[in-house]
């Protein structure tokens, strides 16, 4: 069960800062996109920011409309996640001022106001996408990537690790130039591990980052089953894996 913005977050499903925020972009030599998250709810701001950082984005935050305008004036981000219900200068006014100034920075409106009239108002003012709360942080990250791709700022299209080439936009894997068929979740799990080679991920980490869940909500054995399936597809000897390695008592890591 995913964590949802605007709903109570279980204590075990907090989102600490990722230790390697550049992730995929660092591996390809390109700069991670800069995302400005604007929301007056501290918990929502922290969850979105931490999840996006773990996905490899550079993130700044603002708690109200005036702070958002100040951040925008200081440095133009690659994308803005903007709440509508802000104290002082509201989100629609921020968006209106942005577009009136000629700034076409991509904007995703994130708000508890899910009515059609609010959605239409945001889109008519120039929002690139609209996501109503409650929404999972994983969905927010997916929308951010999609909007950035459309804007031409979505980062690398693929990563190459060892004998594997992972096509991120096409969601395809080639190993030794031969395409390997993966299920959607197997692909997500491989990307999560291969994006940080040598880094150990616990099963709880993988449940959180790949499934948007936690051991309180989903059996960690789910991770074990998917790792077993990945090894059968990718390892010459699944019983003695070279790439998808178990760190006993801790979790899993990817070795190129």
Protein described:
With 256 residues, this protein is of the alpha/beta class. It has 2 domains: 11-151, Response regulator (Rossmann fold), CATH 3.40.50.2300; 158-254, Winged helix-like DNA-binding domain superfamily/Winged helix DNA-binding domain (Arc Repressor Mutant, subunit A), CATH 1.10.10.10. Helices cover 38% and strands 18% of the residues. It has 9 helices and 11 strands. It has helices spanning 23-28, 42-54, 65-74, 91-100, 116-124, 137-151, 184-194, 203-211, 221-234, and strands at 34-38, 58-62, 79-82, 107-111, 129-132, 158-161, 164-167, 172-175, 178-180, 244-247, 251-254. It has a 5-stranded parallel beta sheet, with helices on both faces. A 4-stranded antiparallel beta sheet has the order 6-7-8-9. Helix 2 (42-54) crosses helix 6 (137-151), helix 7 (184-194) crosses helix 8 (203-211) and helix 7 (184-194) packs across helix 9. The longest helix has 15 residues, at 137-151. The radius of gyration is 19 Å and the shape is elongated. The chain starts with 22 loop residues before the first helix and ends with a strand. The model is unreliable at 7-23 (pLDDT under 50).
Number of strands: 11
For the termini, the CA-CA separation is 32 Å
Number of helices: 9
Helix content: 25-40%
Topology-level CATH name of the largest domain: Rossmann fold
Stretches where pLDDT is under 50 for at least 5 consecutive residues are: 7-23
CATH class of the largest domain: Alpha Beta
Q: What class would the helix/strand composition place it in?
A: alpha/beta
Shape: elongated
Tell me the strand percentage band: 15-25%
| Main pleated-sheet profile | 5 strands, parallel
**Chain-averaged pLDDT:** 82
List the domain count as a whole number: 2
With strands numbered from the N-terminus, the spatial order across the biggest sheet is: 2-1-3-4-5
- CATH architecture term of the largest domain: 3-Layer(aba) Sandwich
The CATH superfamily of the largest domain turns out to be Response regulator
Rg: 19 Å
Taken in chain order, the helices and strands follow as HEHEHEHEHEHEEEEHHHEE
């Amino acid at each position: 069960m995913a964590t949802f913005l605007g709903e109570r977050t279980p204590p075990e499903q907090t989102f600490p800062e990722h230790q390697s925020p550049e992730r995929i972009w660092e591996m390809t030599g390109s700069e991670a996109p800069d995302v400005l998250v604007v929301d007056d709810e501290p918990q929502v701001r922290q969850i979105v920011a931490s999840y996006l950082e773990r996905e490899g984005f550079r993130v700044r935050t603002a708690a109200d409309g005036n702070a958002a305008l100040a951040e925008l004036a200081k440095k133009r981000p690659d994308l803005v996640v903007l709440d509508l219900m802000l104290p002082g200068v509201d989100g629609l006014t921020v968006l209106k001022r942005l577009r009136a100034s000629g700034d076409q920075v991509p904007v995703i409106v994130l708000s508890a106001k899910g009515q059609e009239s609010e959605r239409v108002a945001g889109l008519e003012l120039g929002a690139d996408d609209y996501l109503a709360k409650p929404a999972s942080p994983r969905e927010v990250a997916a929308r951010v990537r999609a909007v950035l791709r459309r804007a031409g700022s979505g980062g690398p299209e693929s990563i190459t690790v060892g004998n594997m080439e992972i096509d991120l936009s096409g969601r395809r894997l080639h190993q030794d130039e031969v395409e390997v068929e993966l299920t959607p979740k197997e692909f997500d799990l491989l990307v999560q591990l291969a994006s940080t080679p040598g880094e150990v991920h616990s099963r709880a980490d993988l449940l959180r980052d790949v499934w948007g869940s936690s051991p309180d909500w989903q059996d960690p054995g789910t991770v074990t089953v998917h790792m077993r399936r990945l090894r059968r597809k990718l390892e010459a000897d699944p019983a003695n894996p070279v790439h998808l390695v178990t760190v006993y008592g801790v979790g899993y890591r990817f070795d190129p």
